[in-house]
Design a protein that fits this description.
This protein has 232 residues and is α/β, with parallel strands linked by helices. The chain contains 9 helices and 7 strands. The longest helix has 17 residues, at 174-190. The two termini are 25 Å apart.
Length: 232
């Protein structure tokens, strides 16, 4: 993926790349982009089942959540393309490889970006997803399928949140939990006065990335364009 910091140069490259894409496809990219948000994000801690990871990525794409943060311990991040339906291609995935402080590094980064970090836990004493205010940027932490979130993740989170349940089963699986939470939060967010949409700069950057993922051999095409238009 080519990264161009200079906004004017990037705009010229974008204009050049657009000629390799149909008008219908360009309209589709622009349409989807206007619904993308960074007001809410998802953090996956050490998930080991590719089908669950992929289902969550697909859910994030469906609800317009642009960023997914992946904390790795024993399990490496890997998506199942048949289940994700290519959703990972359109998301910004931030990986935190195994280390003694990767959980804290991830949550510190989220705090720096203004997120309130919510650990998803099946504890009836905690607040429910219906109690959360959408005015606050929120990051939802989801843990492993068997053991849930680590003690460290719960420690550094700002609070806990649960999905109300009324049956014998104590919890949903990860993909269902993410779908329920994101469905509620994003719908409430979009019908509020919250400024949940991307900034102009964020839209430009993501649009540039999407163009590169859409155009075959885009890196070669961009390199050719830059060489052709470089100044002596």
């Amino acid at each position: 993926m080519v990264n161009i910091e200079d906004k004017n140069l990037r705009a010229r490259v974008v204009e050049y790349l657009q000629q390799f894409i149909t008008e219908k496809r360009l309209e589709r990219l622009a349409e989807i982009l206007q619904y993308r948000t960074r007001h809410v994000t998802v953090v996956l801690e050490d998930l080991f089942q590719a089908q669950n990871i992929s289902a969550v990525l697909r859910t994030c794409d469906c609800y317009g959540v642009q960023d997914v943060h992946v904390i790795q311990h024993r399990n490496e991040f890997e998506a199942n393309k048949d289940i994700s339906m290519g959703a990972d291609k359109w998301l910004s995935i931030h990986e935190y490889p195994h280390s003694d402080h990767n959980v804290k590094d991830c949550i510190d980064r989220l705090h720096e970006q203004g997120y309130w970090v919510a650990a998803t836990l099946p504890d009836e004493k905690k607040r429910t997803i219906f109690d959360l205010p959408v005015e606050q940027k929120t990051a939802f932490l989801f843990g492993t399928e068997l053991t849930g979130l680590s003690d460290e993740a719960v420690k550094y989170a700002d609070g806990n949140v649960l999905i109300p349940m009324y049956g014998f089963t104590e919890s949903f699986n990860i993909s269902n939990s993410a779908a329920i939470i994101l469905s509620h939060f994003t719908e409430k967010m979009r019908h509020s006065d919250v400024n949940w949409q991307l900034s102009d700069e964020e839209r430009d950057q993501i649009y540039f990335e999407w163009l590169q993922k859409t155009v075959k051999d885009s890196d070669i095409i961009i390199e050719h364009f830059l060489k052709k238009n470089e100044h002596p």
